[in-house]
Every structure is written in structure tokens, then in C-alpha cells.
Design goal:
globular; two-stranded antiparallel sheet; alpha/beta; 12% strand; 3-stranded parallel sheet
């Protein structure tokens, strides 16, 4: 099995029971306590929505949550002819530099977990699923505009050129 080089110990979120065997957390840069609590809250919300949507453990793919400083990491695999893994890579320092709010972080985490566990590639579709998860399990009074910038499509010019 491949390993992430320069991995370190980091405070991490608790992983809900129905996701324990599906998630591995590897860090090359450490979360702080606040970030770990928010990731824990996001995993709890996702876990509850998985139950609501009746996704079975068999349907859920394994995920490696990779915590990095700025998104880069190195994988080493000396023992096999190939390997397959799915990573959700989080760049910690940029969100700290931008002083992201709790909701910014929660939204970021839930969005990546939603892409993975529901297999949603479409950016617009995944944002509405994130909204559903947050409304159902975090804050029933939240609106799309509270979670996402009005011009969020500008971040995806290759997908939304004509809009």
C-alpha cells in the first residue's frame, strides 16, 4: 500500500461509527482544535445524511482525508505494481490566511465529502446537496447564499464559460 511521505501526528476529528471503516486521516500539516471540531461536525452531518439517504456501507467508497499545508504531498509505493486510493486533500494554511469562518470550513469539508460519498461530480449539483445536508443536520434556517458566494461559478471558468 502506498504511504504519504512526511506524515505527522495531528489532532483529528472523531469519525462517526458508520464511517469509521471508510475514512483514514493522514496529515502532513496539523489541524488546530477549532478546525478538528468543525471537521467532526461536518462528518457528523454527512454521516446522518448517509443514514437518511439509506446509503449502505457497501455503497460507500473508502476515503483518505489528507491534511496539507498548501495542497502538495508526496506518495511513495515501493511494494506494489500500482495502487488505487481516493483522497480529499485539504490545504490548511490558505484558509487560515483568509481567516475563514466556521461556516466556510464546514461548507468546504461537507462539499468534498459529498462529492466523494454521493459520487456527485457536478459543482452546482453538489452545492445543493451540501445545502440539504446543512439544513437537515446543522442549521435549518440556512440559505444557499449563506454558504456560497453569489458568483461562485467564476471559480470554475472551464465549466461555466457561457454564464
Amino acid at each position: 500500500m502506498a504511504k504519504i511521505l512526511k506524515s505527522i501526528d495531528s489532532i483529528g476529528p472523531g469519525i462517526p461509527g458508520n464511517l469509521k471503516s471508510k475514512i483514514q486521516i493522514v496529515a502532513t500539516y496539523a489541524l488546530n482544535e477549532r478546525e478538528a471540531k468543525i471537521m467532526h461536525a461536518s462528518l457528523n452531518a454527512v454521516s446522518k445524511q448517509i443514514v437518511c439517504d439509506k446509503l449502505t456501507k457497501k455503497e460507500l467508497r473508502n476515503l483518505i482525508i489528507l491534511l496539507t499545508e498548501k495542497g502538495s504531498y508526496c506518495v511513495e509505493d515501493d511494494f506494489s505494481m500500482g495502487s488505487l486510493a481516493t483522497y480529499a486533500v485539504f490545504s490548511i494554511q490558505p484558509w487560515r490566511d483568509k481567516e475563514w469562518t466556521d461556516y466556510n470550513l464546514l461548507t468546504c469539508f461537507i462539499e468534498e465529502f459529498t462529492h466523494h460519498f454521493w459520487g456527485i461530480e457536478d459543482e452546482e449539483e453538489v452545492k445543493y446537496k451540501v445545502l440539504e445536508i446543512v439544513k437537515n443536520h446543522v442549521d435549518s434556517e440556512i440559505f444557499f447564499e449563506d454558504l456560497f458566494l453569489k458568483d461562485w461559478k467564476k471559480g470554475y471558468p472551464h465549466l461555466y464559460e457561457d454564464e
